[in-house]
Specification:
heterodimer, A: mainly alpha, B: 180 residues, alpha/beta, 6-stranded mixed sheet, 46% helix
Chain lengths: 251, 180
């Protein structure tokens, strides 16, 4: 059975990627190369995320291809992201390119693709969220809800644009910013999304964990940078004989 | 750069062609949502204790009347249906989490009863399930595809029918809405 919403979402993602590749050039990739670089990792990530979801929820379904291909029954987000990034890194390495630089340049496109997916909630089941005076009424519901999916899409789009403007960051820092920013957006959004049960969902716990890990990593990076700066000698010029030369210069 | 633009134009045309083909396919083959006009009627009848008890249209309607007062979720499935199996763990979890507030009832249809019983055993479903032995219940509910999940509110009015697998967000949103 065809899933109309999912097919429409795929078309929207493809269109957004094609448009962003056209209008947001990178220094490492040709415009016509960007989609080629991303669609295989995207499908690999989807497959990996679905397999992980089935293994965690109902391992006996692994025997059934028909059950395995039902994407809407659940895809584990972060395993899917990890698999997609691994494939991108592998293809960059195979092409003898700088892996971290490549990931940093492709990250905004992945964020735009994710934003397109979230914004396409209007084409799938509906955009859910807390009951609100502003928002949309999803199919079958009688209450107006704040469309969290659309807000997530806005935040992911803003993060992608910010990444392209932060020239002073190293490629590694940009990759960390993309992963941490996405985890933070999903962590915050998940508090307002409807769920079965009172506890946090598995995906929410994963997002919170990744956010915390990135904050720790970013803190370590900043500390290292601060300590390195403190070790750099002063370069101010003193007239000859005005005072003893610093030991740093002598060294 | 000129070659890049030509390739990009070619790719844009490919995207447009695939999008058009997709829209045509979807228009021709996409399942239509069933009507939500079904209204259960008759004297109230309790849910049978036996798992996969055979029911006809009249008995099914009477069981739903008996359950009115609280929202009811009816999930139509078959043992040969992959998406049915995929959504069962979610429905089982929801039945457990909403116990006492929402009643979950499964309805096996277009299936062999012994296969359906072993399927339930295999998946580990504990909420009550009925068996549509003649296929008339699915016709009455205007079933368009397997699985389909129907949500009835406390008055017995059908609020929504979801064809294909239901997602956690969608199910939780529907149940929270119908409980408000």
């Amino acid at each position: 059975m065809l899933d109309l919403g999912l097919i429409a979402t795929g078309v929207v993602i493809w269109a957004v990627l094609a448009a962003s590749a056209r209008w947001a050039p990178t220094s490492s990739f040709r415009r016509d190369e960007i989609i080629d670089r991303l669609y295989v990792p995207a499908f690999t990530g989807l497959l990996a995320g679905r397999i992980v979801a089935v293994v965690l929820d109902d391992p006996t379904s692994l025997r059934s291809i028909r059950a395995l291909i039902v994407i809407r029954s659940g895809v584990e987000f972060w395993p899917a992201v990890a698999a997609a990034l691994a494939v991108v890194a592998w293809s960059l390495r195979r092409g003898r390119r700088d892996v971290v630089l490549g990931l940093a340049e492709l990250a905004p496109f992945l964020l735009w693709a994710y934003a397109a997916y979230e914004a396409s909630c209007v084409l799938r089941d509906g955009c859910y969220g807390p009951v609100s005076a502003f928002g949309l009424i999803p199919d079958g519901l009688q209450t107006r809800q704040l469309p969290i999916g659309l807000l997530v899409a806005l935040a992911a789009t803003a993060l992608a644009f910010a990444m392209r403007q932060l020239w002073s960051l190293t490629p590694g820092e940009k990759v960390l910013l993309a992963v941490g920013g996405l985890a933070l957006i999903r962590s915050v959004a998940a508090f307002w999304l409807p769920r079965i049960g009172s506890g946090l969902t598995r995906s929410h716990v994963e997002s919170l964990t990744i956010t915390a890990a990135v904050v720790v990593a970013a803190g370590a990076m900043l500390l290292r940078r601060y300590l390195r700066r403190r070790r750099i000698p002063t370069t101010t010029w003193d007239p000859p004989g005005s005072r003893e030369p610093s030991k740093d210069f002598i060294r | 750069m000129r070659i890049g633009r030509r390739v990009l134009l070619g790719r844009s045309l490919q995207v447009a062609a695939i999008a058009v083909a997709g829209i045509v396919l979807v228009t021709v083959f996409a399942p239509q949502s069933p009507t939500t006009a079904y209204e259960p009627s008759g004297d109230p009848m309790p849910l049978p204790n036996e798992q996969l008890a055979p029911v006809d249209t009249e008995q099914f309607g009477r069981i739903l009347v008996g359950l009115s007062g609280a929202p009811v979720v009816v999930n139509i499935w078959a043992s040969w249906c992959g998406p049915c199996r995929a959504e069962m763990p979610l429905l089982e979890q929801a039945a457990s989490d909403y116990e006492g507030r929402v009643t979950f009832v499964g309805l096996a249809s277009k299936d062999d009863r012994s296969s359906a019983l072993s399927f339930l055993d295999d998946v580990g479903v504990t909420y009550p399930n009925l068996f549509d032995h003649s296929g008339e219940v699915r016709s009455e509910l205007d079933l368009r595809g397997f699985p389909t999940t129907y949500v009835f509110d406390g008055t017995g009015e059908m609020r929504d029918a979801i064809v294909g697998g239901v997602s956690e967000q969608q199910l939780a949103a529907l149940l929270d809405d119908v409980l408000r």
